[in-house]
């Protein structure tokens, strides 16, 4: 089977995953592609390591945007691919290589087959952190081309190819990173009474943190605290003077987010007293919930059922994933959906191998949807 242009592009991008705001090779790759398209229909602007591309419509009344994220994750790849990451310790394990290839596919379609409205394609850096969407929205580059509507997708390992899942209202959670540094007193492993051991303190804290959700959040609400990384100590026979926990908090309301943070702060204060140490909390970056415009999403879901019988529309539940696309949806009507990519390993797993057939599904659905949307009276399909 021959590889489609956009699957090939995805494979090229897969080999060069880069951290947020350091997507230099990725940006260059995308620009090289864009610069070989007919220049008369497109305008290109760069913003940091991101790119904005406007595709001219034939009789524009509105500006409809599509957003794709660009960054990779600090994961050592363990796929069976022969096009594995060439960047040691980095991997596109969240599908952003797929997202960018799909973005280019949709864009290319509309360069060749313009519709009435102008389209904006946003290749956005740093979704995994520290978050590119918010500073992008504040940038002059974006403000000059501020779209009327904005849309995006995320690959979903658990759905078969050809499935599209979404819902009106909240789709993804509010997030906050969570970093806790502990400083005690180091010493010889044989004399624990002369030291304050931060490996023991950190271990207690990890366990205590897990009680916050179960004991302080209404069981009918949902929240998550995950500690994804612990660092501490220097050697097996030295008591650790320092330890650091790194994690994330997820909630469906800002009230719960505040409550979780207050409880974490109380537990950390208790830890300081109990383990005679100093602790510092840093909440890093936080993202707004992804809230899909209700009317637009319902209209899309009806359109999918009626006009895309070859694909399966799933009305899904909300998830505890986070996305800085939430900031864009906070100000601009639109929605996000899950794109089935059928792989046994989940997002952020070193063995994830999304099915590349999903790329063409997304290009087909989004190009048809944008063509349809461009012909609608927007007040009919968009919430106030
Ligand atoms: C879709 C996805 O996986 N997004 C990330 C967003 C991360 C936000 C931030 N770095 C945090 O960990 O809170 C996710 O982990 O859900």
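^ structure tokens above, recovered residues below v
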């Amino acid at each position: 089977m021959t590889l489609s242009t956009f699957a090939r592009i995805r494979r090229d991008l897969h080999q060069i995953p880069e951290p947020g705001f350091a997507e230099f090779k990725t940006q260059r790759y995308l620009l090289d592609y864009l610069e070989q398209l007919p220049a008369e229909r497109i305008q290109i602007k760069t913003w940091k390591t991101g790119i904005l591309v406007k595709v001219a419509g034939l009789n524009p009344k509105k500006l409809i945007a599509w957003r794709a994220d660009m960054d990779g994750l600090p994961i050592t790849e363990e796929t069976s691919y022969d096009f594995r990451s060439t960047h040691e310790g980095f991997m596109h394990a969240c599908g952003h290589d797929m997202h960018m290839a799909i973005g280019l596919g949709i864009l290319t379609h509309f360069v060749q087959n313009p519709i009435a409205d102008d389209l904006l394609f946003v290749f956005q850096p740093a979704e995994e952190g520290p978050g590119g969407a918010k500073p992008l929205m504040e940038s002059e580059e974006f403000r000059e081309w501020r779209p009327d509507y904005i849309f995006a997708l995320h690959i979903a390992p658990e759905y078969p190819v050809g499935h599209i899942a979404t819902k009106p209202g909240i789709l993804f959670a509010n997030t906050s990173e969570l970093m806790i540094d502990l400083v005690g007193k180091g010493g010889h492993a044989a004399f624990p009474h002369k030291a304050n051991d931060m490996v023991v303190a950190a271990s207690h804290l990890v366990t205590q943190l897990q009680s916050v959700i179960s004991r302080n959040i209404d069981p009918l609400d949902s929240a998550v605290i995950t500690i994804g990384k612990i660092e501490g100590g220097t050697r097996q026979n030295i008591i650790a003077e320092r330890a650091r926990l790194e994690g994330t908090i997820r909630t469906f309301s800002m009230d719960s987010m505040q409550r979780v943070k207050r409880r974490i702060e109380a537990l950390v204060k208790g830890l300081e007293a109990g383990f005679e140490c100093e602790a510092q909390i840093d909440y890093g970056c936080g993202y707004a919930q992804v809230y899909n415009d209700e009317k637009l999403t319902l209209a899309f879901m009806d359109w999918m059922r009626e006009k895309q019988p070859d694909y399966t529309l799933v009305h899904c539940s909300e998830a505890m994933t986070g996305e800085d696309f939430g900031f864009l949806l906070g100000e601009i009507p639109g929605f996000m959906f899950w794109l089935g990519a059928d792989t046994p390993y989940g997002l952020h797993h070193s063995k994830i191998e999304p099915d590349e057939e999903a790329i063409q599904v997304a290009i087909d659905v989004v190009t048809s949807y944008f063509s349809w949307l461009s012909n609608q009276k927007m007040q009919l399909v968009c919430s106030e």
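The chain has a mean pLDDT of 96.
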